[in-house]
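help with these tokens:
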Amino acid sequence: MRRTKTTQPLKSKIEVPWDTTGVINADSDQTIPLDQIILPATQPRRYFDTEALKQLTESIKQHGILQPLLVRPVDDGKHEVVAGERRYRAALSIGLKVVPVVIRELDDNAAFQFALIENLLREDLNPVEETEGILQLLALKLGRSVEEIPPLLYRLQRQHQKASTVTHNVMGEPVVDSVEPTHNVMGEVETESTNNVISDNEGDIGLFTHNVMGETETDNSDLNQEPPLNPDLKIVEEVFDGLGLMTWESFVKNRLPLLNLPEDILDALREGTLEYTKARAIAQIQKLDERVEFLEQAIANNWSLSEIRQRISEKKAAGSTENTESNDYKERFTAATTKLRKLRIWSDPKKRKQIEKLLAQLETLTNIE
């Protein structure tokens, strides 16, 4: 589940979106008292692996803090953590008095972007936090709210698919209208044909006509120009190219649906106790209590994905059988009572006595329920 740098060689391409000359002590070994450092009000990363934090703490006990914290000056002579919250927490837990720091002058927006990117480039980030972090980064880059980003990405996906379809038509066989051919004075046959092409980034369709020599004839010179690139798409592509984690198309297809998973599944993903593929499989269980119980068992027993799928399949089969048997009882009862009404057994004292006895048993049963 953990990612490695070798599987993501492009991660170093991230473009820092602020002026790096704002470093006050980039080449110094400055330290400041730990009690002068505070955490930001908003932290992109909400979950910290307790085991990993424990290991980091032990490492700091033995070797000290090898990588300085990145901080920025704030009010009252304090410094706010921009990157290195785990090191800060570990130092706090073992009672360090001073810590090494690099100080930068960063505004709120730049500091949050820096923290986002620093988190996204970590190898132990879980897929939920990674997905949420990318959405936050896109929101900052595009100047929109986080809630607006998924609909925007889905819209870009539709436009991209539409553009690919139309481009394929243009590059393929020309679409010829069924019209009678005409001859010019040279005796050459002229036919009318049209092909669809994208004329702008919204996918509007323009029409080109082609003569028999394959040359384009149009009165609109703008149609010969390349369609303008959607500015939102350009920013999205730059963000994903910089991170080097995945393409934006893969993110839309495989990651955005992740956020629609039930909250109990998302919590397990955030805690790193469950892989994404297993989470999607367990999310098929609709009833909350059954899903929570199954989730706990899957984590405790470390079931493989194939085991999870098999157990879910067996669970569905058992439930289907139970429902079938239940419906079968209801149908038998309805058929029996319907038939009972039509039979002439009510005048028979012995049979009526048996019916009264059965009726009393049914009434007792319903009272218990």
